Every structure is written in C-alpha cells, then in structure tokens.
Amino acid sequence: MKNIFRIISFLEGVSYLLLLFVAVPIKYFQGDTSYVKMLGMPHGVLFMLYLVLAVALKKEMKWNVRKLGIVCMASVIPFGTFYVDKKYFQK
C-alpha cells in the first residue's frame, strides 16, 4: 500500500504543479480554458485518491492525528507531496 501511495502522491504533486503553473496562467493570460479542463479532472481524482490512501495508511504507518494532518495538508501546498515522500517514505 505504501508504494501505491507514493505513486499516487507523485502523480498528484505533478498534476497540481501542471495545473497551477501551466494551465491556470494559460487560462488567465491567453483566455484558453482547455488546459484547465484537461488537467482538472485527473488532478481531482488523484487528490481524492491521495486523501483516501493517506487515511488508510494511518494505522499501517502508525501516524498520529498530527502527522496525518500534515500529510493531508501537504496535498494543497505546491511541492508538498514531494516533501511528504522524502520525510515519511524514503529511508
């Protein structure tokens, strides 16, 4: 389950960065909403999977509520999922 979470975490982080730093500027500077529409749904699905897997991993990783909160909050901060991977999953 940890490996699946790490993969979803990486994909969620990349999709968030693409949405935030590529699609949104194109939307507001060029008026083209197609990139937001194209990246928005996959990012939303990955975000939900990230949260569900984080809650499922709480017991396995022996996280307290504070650590679970940090892991969940990291999903809304740019580069946060990469921080979680480095801090909690790499040996």
Tell me the layout of helices and strands:
Layout: H1 2-30, H2 34-61, H3 65-73, H4 80-89
Helix pairs in contact: 1-2, 1-4, 2-3
Q: Please give the domain count.
A: 1
Series of H and E elements:
HHHH
User: What proportion strand?
Assistant: under 5%
Q: Oligomer, anyone?
A: single chain
Termini separation: 16 Å
What structural class should be given to the helix and strand makeup? Answer: mainly alpha
User: What kind of sheet is the major sheet?
Assistant: none
Total of DSSP H or I helical runs spanning 4+ residues: 4
pLDDT under 50 segments (min length 5)? none
| General form | elongated
| Computed Rg | 14 Å
Structure report:
With 91 residues, the chain is mainly alpha-helical. The protein has one domain (2-79). It is 84% helix and 0% strand. The protein is built from four helices and no strands. It has helices at 2-30, 34-61, 65-73, 80-89. The radius of gyration is 14 Å and the shape is elongated. The two termini are 16 Å apart. The model has no long low-confidence stretch (mean pLDDT 94).
